[in-house]
Structures are given as C-alpha cells and as structure tokens.
Records
---
Amino acid sequence: MNAITRMTFRTTLAVVIFLALELFGFVGIHEIRVVNNNPFTNPATVFRIADHQIEFADGRILKLEYPLDAEFQTMIKNSENEVGLEPASPESQSIMLCVRRLETNCQLGRPSLVLPLIVHDRPKFAKKFIAWGNLETQQ
C-alpha cells in the first residue's frame, strides 16, 4: 500500500508541476502551424494597370469606380500580380478586387518548450479588399 501511495503522490506532483509551468508560460501543449494557402476563389493575373481600369492576362478588363493610387498598385505587385475577383453580391454586377496579404502570426509570448499535443493550422495568406468595379470582356 505504501508503494501505491508514493506512486500516486509522485504522479500528482508531476501533473501539478507541469500545469504550473504551463500556467506561467514555460511549457505549452499548443503548436501553431502556418499553412500555405491561396485565399482567392476567382484568381486573375494582372497584365496592365491604367487610370480607371485593370487589364488581366486573359483579356478581361475591370473598370474601376475610382483610380488606384500608388499604394494599391504596390499591394498588387506585392501580391505577385495575382488578385481575386469576388462578386460584391449575388444580384449585383459589381466586382470586388482583392489582393493577397501575409497574415501575421505573432509568436510573442510563446513558451520555451512546446509539446505539440494540440495543433492549430493558421493560413499564411488572407485577402484584402482594395477596390470595386465592373468586369468587361475585351472586343
């Protein structure tokens, strides 16, 4: 009986120490894994950007409601000239223009020792809306 009591005490002490280390942030059981993804459902490659329109590699033209400034053009270049064309609503002819942006996965405060018992997948990229307009095919 004495050996069982000692074993129970040691196991309980080990669990309490582990929980205390996890509580204070020294040990963790959650692993965050960054997964490469494509956030666009309707991707298109940008061929040329003019004042109020964007021409795509497949010949379609998006007539914008307002001109894109230099910041938005830089966002498109950072997105490797690939954008997403999302319908604004099912009953509307308007198209939303989205770019790919890098998701921030802050690992600040991550424990020194991680036992990956629970794995969380996080997407590497997200889409960001930058403009809207009407899509036309080139004649």
---
Amino acid sequence: MPKSSEYSRVVWKRVATRIWPFPMVSALTLVWAVFGDEDSRPVALMLTSIFAGVSALIFAMVSAEIKVAWHGLRVRLTGTLHFTGGEYGGPLMVLVGICFVGAALAAVWMSASAGPSAGLGHGRRKGGPLLYLIIGVGCIVFGIVKPFLPSGLEMNEEAVWARKGIIRHRIPWTQLADVVVRGHGKVPWIGLVLAEGPTFYLKPVHVGSNPHYVAELILYYLRHPDQRELLRDPEAAIREVMEIEGPGEL
C-alpha cells in the first residue's frame, strides 16, 4: 500500500522550504520602495516585482502538487478513462506574468533615472528589461492558454495519451512494454517503459493521482487487451481493477 501520508508531508515540506523566503524578500523590498529615497525606488520596485513573480510561480507549482489525490484517483467521469493532472496555468501564471512585466517597466524607469553615467547592472542593460518583458508576456499567454490544453493521462483502446508541459504524447499500446513506479527522492514517478526508446516518466502532478494506482491500471490494460473496451466507461474501467473510496474520489 502506498504511503500516501508520507508523500503528502513531502509536498507540505516543499511549501515550507520553497515559498516563504521569496514573499519575505518581496515584502522587504516593497518597504524599501515605499520608505526609501526616491533614487533607489526604481530598483526597489524592480526587485519587489521579481521576487513577487517568483513567489507566485513557486506557489503555482506547489499548489498543483497539493491537488494530487494521494489516497485515490482524480478522473473525468465522461469520455474515456482520463486522469486529470495538476494545472500550472490559470490566474497564478497570469499574476507571475504581470509581476515580470512590472519588473520590466521598473527596469526601464531605473535605467532612465540612472542616466548614462550610472552603473546599476541589469537596469542599464537593454537586455534586462527585454528579458523580463519576454518572461512576463510568455507567462501571461501560458496562463491564459494552458487551461484549454489537454491535460493529464488518458487511456483508450488504441493508445495511452500523456501530457508533459504543453506537449501531448501518444504512446500506442503496441509500443508500451511495461509500467514501473520508481522513487525520485520520496516521491514516486510513473515510468512507461517503451519497446524502443527511453522510459517515459510522469510525475504525480502530471496525472493528479496516486502513481501506484495509475500504474496498476495502465499495467492491467496493457496485459489484458481484450478488456480495453471498458476504457470507454471510466468508472467501470476502474472497478474492474480496484476499489477506491474517499471524498471526491472513485
């Protein structure tokens, strides 16, 4: 039986260790921007925007991990069997983009205020504001588009479909040789062992469910091709292999 509580503690540990320094630094630089002298205000605002953007980015990543159903499965109840993965897109990614666009504007302000003789590093470099602007616009577009892209892992009679990032991969059953679960630290990843080529790994956030359960289901239908017609009915497909109970789960 998977140690679900242990994996949950790992996720919450990441929340504690990854997030808190960035909001703290962002708050300190904001205080600097408000109460500091006027000459230092542009650089203070730029740093505030950067650290706020990084804070929102890390929070978006960790919040997606928190949504993983360690005690069961997150599936869509319509269509074929489809495990819904965590989403990095949406409002949080738009917020990240806005922060970096703000950093770009602050960097331009800093460069203009510094004048040609100042040496404030990235603030005076044309590449600094441009880089922040590209990151910001990219995050905004990604945050808007991402929720509309196919997510998670889907199984039908012909293939297994898995998305990593913005790319959706199709793995025909005939090309799938085995399914394994291997630990990366204390967190298990699903490994789709291909007949030819490297093993295709999926993190828990990619499937939104306990990797052990998902791997068991994939392996069952890999070894029982005559049962794959059940994949048209997600609940029946799961009941054929296991019983999962819990709030909000099958």
